[in-house]
Amino acid sequence: MNDPHWIIHLPTTLTRVDEAAALAMALRRSLGHVLAVDFGETTLSEEDRQFVRTRVWCDAPLAGTDRCGLPDAHDGPCTPLGR
Fold first, then answer.
1. Over pLDDT 90: what percentage of the chain?
2. Distance CA 15, CA 21 (A)
3. Is there a smaller number of Cβ atoms within 10 Å at the N or the C end of the chain?
4. 3-class SS of residue 16
5. Which of 45, 35, 74 is nearest to 57 (CA)?
6. In 3D, which of 72, 70, 71, 24 has the Cα closest to residue 81?
7. CA 45, CA 82: separation in Å to the nearest integer?
8. Does residue 45 contact residue 51 with C-beta atoms inside 8 Å?
9. What is the mean pLDDT of the chain?
10. Residue 8, phi-psi category: left (phi > 0), alpha (psi -120 to 50), beta (remainder)
11. How many Å apart are CA 45 and CA 21, to the nearest integer?
């Protein structure tokens, strides 16, 4: 049996989804080198509707261990994030 992975819920004072997505992107730029954080799985939710999640990134699997680092529902082909 595998050990469970843990999710960090990080509440903000932001009131718009685009501002929350911009913060998530800034955190990825700042902390992308921390391998323990899986930014590809980042989702956003309203405080009182946490069961309704909005994906930030596409995160589709690519060749090897790469995953798409473009915003969710992007136009065109997937592109690896590249650390």
1. 61
2. 11
3. N
4. coil
5. 74
6. 70
7. 26
8. yes
9. 90
10. beta
11. 10
Q: How many CB atoms lie within 10 A of CB 23?
A: 15
**How far, rounded to the nearest angstrom, does the alpha carbon of residue 30 sit from its chain's CA centroid?**
13
Q: Residue 83 has what pLDDT?
A: 47
Rg over alpha carbons for the chain, rounded to the nearest Å, is: 14
pLDDT score at 64: 83
Tokens of 21: 């997505």
The model's pTM is 0.79
Instruction: Provide the pLDDT for residue 66.
Output: 85
* Per-residue pLDDT at 65: 81
Instruction: Please name the residue that has the structure tokens 């989804």.
Output: 17
User: Cα–Cα distance between 81 and 2 in angstroms, integer?
Assistant: 27
**What tens digit of pLDDT does each residue of 38-72 get?**
888 899 999 888 899 999 999 999 988 888 989 99
